[in-house]
Amino acid sequence: GLARLFALQLAAQVKAIEKLPGLRDTALTFVALGTEKELREQLLAVTLERTCLMEPLPTDAAAFAARRESARGRLLLVAQEILRLAGTILAEYAVLNKKLAAAQKAFPQAAADIGAQLAELMPKKFILAVPFERLQHYPRYLKAVQVRLDKLKANPSRDAQLMAEYGPLWSNYERRALQLAKLGAADPQIEQFRWLLEELRVSLYAQELKTPVPVSLKRLQKQWEGIQYG
Predict the structure, then answer these.
(1) Which residues have CB under 8 Å from 77's CB, separation 6+?
(2) What's the rounded Cα separation, in Å, for the pair 48 and 168?
(3) Of the four, 40, 51, 64, 146, which is 20 to 30 A from 219 by CA?
(4) With contact defined as beta carbons under 8 Å apart, do 201 and 110 qualify?
């Protein structure tokens, strides 16, 4: 309701966002996931989230007006930043999908693992569903998968070994995440662990791309035990 109210009162800025240069081109790379209209809706929703809907939410007319005015000048800049990032991610995704299609026949197990990883990373509403701070790491995650595919041809047995070592950690996480989803609950530790697993993939398959925090199979196994029994 608040988002709708902000959008109505900032109609000129909303119109400018909907006509941003580059939106149409980005929509062409988004086509595997959705329509231009859906891309536009996600872009607008995330922009409003990042400019108008931060905690604490306004609870009276004066607070609403103050938030609206502080957002007015920032709306377009924030939308441009989000669109630019989405464009970079979608361009990497398009390149990756071509490489993946080429590898499918020769390396079905690795291709299936990568396909499952991409399904998790890139749902239809990924721009809206994934926290912006996380989205900023997506180009590196997708680049790491490309590096993995390049290395796969030279050493498929190493890839299979890494997949076998990584698998149990992901299964543990997935099982817990499903339990939480059924309960309608959230656990920040589990959420953080999920993104550490993504960093672990970078570390295992594309070490040259670096990770912002130290990760290893041993570290994450220890951390999982801490979550389990802590």
Answers:
(1) none
(2) 39
(3) 146
(4) no
Please, which residues have CB within 8 angstroms of residue 180's CB and are 6 or more apart in sequence?
186, 187, 190
- Which tens digits make up the pLDDT trace of 88-146? 999 999 999 999 999 999 999 999 999 999 999 999 999 999 999 999 999 999 999 99
Residues of the chain with pLDDT under 70: 229-230
Report d(CA 170, CA 192) in Å as an integer.
13
Can you tell me the distance from the alpha carbon of 123 to that of 68, in angstroms, rounded to the nearest whole number?
31
Helix (H) or strand (E) holding 67: helix 61-72
Q: Give, to the nearest 10 degrees, the angle between helix 75-103 and helix 36-51.
A: 130
In this structure, is the dihedral angle defined by the CA atoms of residues 214, 220, 224 and 226, taken in order, positive or negative?
Answer: negative
